[in-house]
Amino acid sequence: MGEDTLPKGWVETELENLTSIKSGGTPSRSNKSYWQGSIPWIKISDIKSLYVDEATEFITEEGLNNSAARIFPKGTILFTIFATIGRIGILNIEATTNQAIAGLSPTTLINKMYLIYSLQKLADEIMGHGKGVAQKNINQTILKATKIPLPPRSEQDRIVAKVDALIAQVTVMQESLKRIPHLLKDFSQQVLTQAVTGKLTEEWREGKELGEWNYEVATQCCKKVQSGGTPRGGNFSNKGIPFFKVYNIVNQKISFDYKPQFVTEEIQNSQCKKSICFSGDVLMNIVGPPLNKVAIIPKRFKECNINQAITVFRPKDYLSNKFLYYFLREGSPVNMLVNETRGVVGQVNISLTQCREFVIPIPSEVEQQEIVRQVESLFSKADAIEQQYLSLKQKIDTLPQAILHKAFKGELVEQLASDGDARELLSEIEMLKSKSKTKKKPKTKSKKYAAGGDVVLGRVADGDLSYKKR
User: What phi and psi, each to the nearest 5 degrees, are found at residue 173?
Assistant: First the structure.
């Protein structure tokens, strides 16, 4: 934003004119006496929300004095300059940081939250100056030169109050939207449970002589229930017969785009003969977590195979593969076996034998068709709601930047003649800095840390409004 496009009474100035900017440092990891102390040491992963209340690592005073680390006071603005550029936080404790974080202590002549909102608005622009291949970094020179649009102090205060109120409304909307995916998931589960227990078609059955549902174990109602295996020596090919692994079951469908593997016809008809699969077969993973990943093999895969983490179910003619698919997706057979599962730590398995012993409900063929129809109809409605949710979420998530965009164009709050001119404010800030430079700076031999104490570092003091350093 150039001077000619600024709102009346505003001025554009470099960030370094409004705040001190210092970076942290990391004590040597090889010196154990520098670590496991009592001084909080903040890194990028500790900035999880606007206010930073705790650290996951701590350094000693010896580590502080023998590194570039410095103590930042409570209230310091944190701005990340390595890798994840532009993450912003406010220290709610006295702490040190690593060199990937810059600490900003603005003059009290400006509204601190106004500066934070400015940095949030400019974060992408600042990130664009990043250099590096594996990860983008910026240096203090780039950060200090960042141009900040500055209105008079009174207007800053009104802008912050308005942005605060609008962002609070956006947050309420975002929190409300968070419930929708859980509601949709619960709805889908209820549909499946009612489908396989007969409740979904209870009214539809009235007046129809359909008879009672039968119940059969999987080996009775399926022509085949079989898990697969991996070819000896990982003998895969670049083309041939598609070979599915658990990661190929995505969102309860087959997805063969990610890491596709194949076996030759020779392997298919020898080592993997027992687990040959065809389009229309139902697959379910038996190694997790998570379990309950289910898919029907699409028509485009006329013949394929599976590894030992998947079981194939090939239903007999009187059992619809789609009804079987929804029965397995419902998850009750697997959930009842959770306490009986076995496997290595972090892995949950069910056995082929247990799959073969699943008790499967068998409605009449006409009712199976009706169940599938109703389930797909309800799922289609749920999918439509999910798409509306995603579209709305995307729009709401862009609102904060839209609000900030209007704020820094001077369009969010009314401009008042009584506000004065920001050039006067900037002159006052520059005069304050000049005075502070003329003051004699006491020499210190070491940096001190006292939890809860009065640490002043590169900030404007509350009393005489001069910059002090410790």
Answer: -65, -40
Has residue 452 been placed in a domain? yes
How many domains would you assign to the chain? 3
Question: Nearest Cα to 301, choosing from 267, 269, 253?
Answer: 253
Q: Which residues of 201-216 are buried (b: 16+ CB within 10 A; e: fewer)?
A: beeeeeeeeeeeeeeb
CATH of the domain at 298: 3.90.220.20
Whether 146 and 118 share a structural domain: yes
390 and 347 in one domain?
no
Structural domain including 346 reads 214-355
Helices (H), 110-248: 112-127, 140-145, 153-177, 179-197, 202-205, 218-221
Same domain as 337, residue 219: yes
Cβ(119)–Cβ(79) below 8 Å: yes
| Whether residue 159 sits in one domain with residue 78 | no
Q: What is the pLDDT of residue 4?
A: 60
pTM of the model: 0.76
Question: For residue 318, which phi and psi values (nearest 5 degrees)?
Answer: -85, 0
Residue 38 CA to residue 61 CA, distance in Å, equals: 8
Selection from 299, 294, 306 nearest residue 268 by Cα? 306
Q: What is the mean pLDDT of residues 91-95?
A: 97
- Neighbour order of strands in the sheet with 310-315: 222-227, 310-315, 282-285, 294-296
**Is residue 174 in a domain?**
yes
The C-alpha atoms of residue 108 and residue 115 are separated, in whole angstroms, by 11
For the segment 98-129, what is each residue's pLDDT rounded down to a tens digit? Answer: 999 999 999 999 999 999 999 999 998 998 88
Considering only CA atoms, which of 85, 92, 73 is closest in space to residue 22?
A: 73
- φ/ψ of 77, rounded to 5, equals -85, 130
Instruction: Please indicate, yes or no, whether residues 326 and 336 belong to a single structural domain of this protein.
Output: yes
The answer as to whether 200 is a domain residue is: yes
Regarding whether 98 and 200 lie in a shared domain, the answer is no
Question: Does the residue 446 lie in any domain?
Answer: yes
User: What SS3 class is residue 51?
Assistant: strand
In single-letter form, the type of residue at position 29 comes to R
